[in-house]
Structures are given as C-alpha cells and as structure tokens.
Amino acid sequence: xxxxxxxxxxxxxxxxxxxxxxxxxxxxxxxxxxxxxxxxxxxxxxxxxxxxxxxxxxxxxxxxxxxxxxxxxxxxxxxxxxxxxxxxxxxxxxxxxxxxxxxxxxxxxxxxxxxxxxxxxxxxxxxxxxxxxxxxxxxxxxx
Length: 143
Ligand SMILES: Nc1ncnc2c1ncn2[C@@H]1O[C@H](COP(=O)(O)OP(=O)(O)OP(=O)(O)O)[C@@H](O)[C@H]1O
Ligand SMILES: [Mg+2]
Fold this sequence. Notes:
Number of helices: 4
Bound molecules: adenosine-5'-triphosphate, magnesium ion
Distance between the termini: 6 Å
Number of domains: 1
Order of helices and strands: EHEHEEHHEEE
CATH superfamily: P-loop containing nucleotide triphosphate hydrolases
Helix content: 10-25%
CATH architecture: 3-Layer(aba) Sandwich
Strand order of the largest sheet: 1-7-6-2-5-4-3
CATH class: Alpha Beta
Number of strands: 7
Largest sheet: 7 strands, mixed
C-alpha cells in the first residue's frame, strides 16, 4: 500500500492526522529524506498531537530520545531515534535501537538507511521530499 500528499508547514497538524490514519495502527515508522526534508519537524508535530508535553528536538547527539506520554490512560513512551551518526546495524544494536523498535511503543526513526536490516517487515516507511522552500511531499509505504 502506498499513499502520498503535499503539505506546507501550516498544514502539518492535518498531515499528522492523515499519516496516523495511513499507518493503520503501525507504531514503527522509518522516515527517509534528505537533510532539511522535514523529518524532525514532522516527528515533533506527531508527538505533540499524541500528547507529548516536553519539547521534541533532534536526538542527533544522544541517538535515542524517549518522551513520556499517556496512551489510553496508561503511561507509555515514544522513542525518537536519529541514526545519522551511526555506521551500520551493529552500531545501532549496540546503541539499543532494536530494543526500542521491538518494544511495542511508538518508535520514529530518522536516517533508517544507516541500518536497514533492523526494521521488521511491518515497519511503515515514510519518504519526505523537499519540493521547494515551503512545500514537502510525504509518501507512506507499508505492507
Ligand atoms: N512543509 C514543511 N514541512 C516541514 N518542514 C518545513 C516545511 N516547510 C519548511 N520547512 C522547514 O524545513 C526545515 C526542516 O528541518 P528538519 O530539521 O525537520 O529536517 P530533517 O529532515 O529532520 O533534517 P536532518 O536530516 O538534518 O535531521 C525546518 O527549518 C522547517 O521549518
Ligand atoms: Mg532531523
């Protein structure tokens, strides 16, 4: 299955709702796209929509950020992972990325191409493309 749409920054909340509907309950999301394509911006809007209250920023230096939130009244976490500085699967596993991906919690991953082999087949792959200064295209591919 694949679906796509264009969006500008002021449409991002609507885009998040569209994306969550396209995900059909999938919780692991691999976000592909060049630098500045809008991966962190989209994850931040998603986290805010899901009820994360703390500020969401790029975990480039920590690899994994964990944001507490409540899901259906229970305490849960969202993992925001940036693999940019990693070399391969082995480094990702050593950093604890696999544990997050298989935790059953939401897990949003930037630069998934650094460690493509760690993602389970049910992962939703999101492709962001920079159309111009303000416009982005988002494409969702999932099994
Ligand atoms: N429609 C849009 N969606 C998302 N970001 C947009 C849009 N239009 C403009 N922008 C701007 O583009 C930039 C996207 O930066 P962001 O940090 O989200 O990219 P990234 O894909 O996470 O990059 P990196 O690979 O460096 O982590 C922000 O400055 C944002 O304000
Ligand atoms: Mg980023």
